[in-house]
Amino acid sequence: MRIDVVTIFPEYLAPLDLSLVGKARTAGLLDLRVHDLRAWTTDRHRTVDDTPFGGGAGMVMRPDVWGTALDEVLAGGGHLLVPTPSGAPLTQRTAERLAGEEHLVVACGRYEGIDARVAEHYRTVPGVQVSEFSLGDYVLNGGEVAALVLVEAVARLLPGVVGNPASLVEESHGAAGLLEYPVYTKPPSWAGLDVPEVLLSGHHARIERWRRDEALVRTAVRRPDLVRALDVDGLDAHDRTVLAEAGWVVVDGRLVPAPAPATAAPATAAPGAPEDLPPA
């Protein structure tokens, strides 16, 4: 896979030389190229932005500079990815789809963002797909942080990048749709806290069941939106019992919060029983 990142701060992407992504680049598993947008400017000030039409605060990145850069970087086609707070949420499913593509180009905006005509134009270019994505409901100073996140989320899914592929299956937001179970290592006792006994038992079936139960409960408590999205056909009877204890039941083929237990009505005096008399 090839990934190009275009930015006015190439140094911001230096962490991509580290850890698994850096090793993937060295091993030839990932062709990652970082470009300085200012290399495509034509004036002596290397200007990449200008004031917004219609007025308002901040500056907007110029479409002509971006167009020159992207015409070159996307010459053979590819998927243009634009980080923006107004984009679709970046999820694990998104990362999985992108990991199957050949060429990704990340356009890192700054200031008030990139002129909207850039995305609009490249949606009409044959061989180019455009997606605008967001890390979450908050605002950053630029797209570089989002580019770092996207590159790592995608690169770790490429064959050979992660040493044990099984870890990609069991982790949070994996194919099961659950958060990952809690993990422990040595020493078995620390600060008055012990590792759950089942993990020391060596009984693989019990350990697998415990991990599944913990993942179900953790997801129910922390991410009810993920519980609602679970495929109930993939839940066994034990799964349903665990979820019911965590406050979720299956109704009409989907998981919903269990109804609150009915509260008992206040007791009333039996007919003919003497009523409390007011104090004298």
TrEMBL record:
Residue runs in coiled coils: none
GO molecular function annotation: tRNA (guanine(37)-N1)-methyltransferase activity
SUPFAM superfamilies: alpha/beta knot (SSF75217)
Lineage top rank: taxon: Bacteria
GO biological process: tRNA N1-guanine methylation
Gene Ontology CC terms: cytosol
Subcellular location(s) of the protein: Cytoplasm
Comp. bias intervals (Low complexity): 261-274
Catalyzed reactions: guanosine(37) in tRNA + S-adenosyl-L-methionine = N(1)-methylguanosine(37) in tRNA + S-adenosyl-L-homocysteine + H(+)
Region annotated Disordered, chain positions: 261-280
Matches recorded under Pfam families: tRNA_m1G_MT (PF01746)
Amino acids binding S-adenosyl-L-methionine: G109, L135, G136, D137, Y138, V139, L140
Annotated InterPro entries: Alpha/beta_knot_MTases, tRNA_m1G_MeTrfase_C_sf, tRNA_m1G_MeTrfase_TrmD, tRNA_m1G_MTases_N, tRNA_MeTrfase_TRMD/TRM10
Keywords: Cytoplasm, Methyltransferase, S-adenosyl-L-methionine, Transferase, tRNA processing
Enzyme Commission number(s) from the entry: 2.1.1.228
The tRNA methyltransferase TRMD/TRM10-type domain, residue ranges: 1-228
Similarity field: Belongs to the RNA methyltransferase TrmD family.
Function noted in UniProt: Specifically methylates guanosine-37 in various tRNAs.
SUBUNIT field: Homodimer.
Entry protein name: tRNA (guanine-N(1)-)-methyltransferase
UniProt source species: Cellulomonas cellasea
